[in-house]
Amino acid sequence: AQAKKGGAVAATASSVWDYLKKEGYAKNWKMWPGTTPMYQGPEPHGAFLTTYVNDAALKSINAKKGKFSDGALIAQDNFSKDKKLKFISVMYKVKGYNAKDGDWFWAQYKPDGRVEAEGKVDECIKCHVAQKGNDYVYTSKLK
Question: Model-level pTM?
Answer without folding.
Answer: 0.93
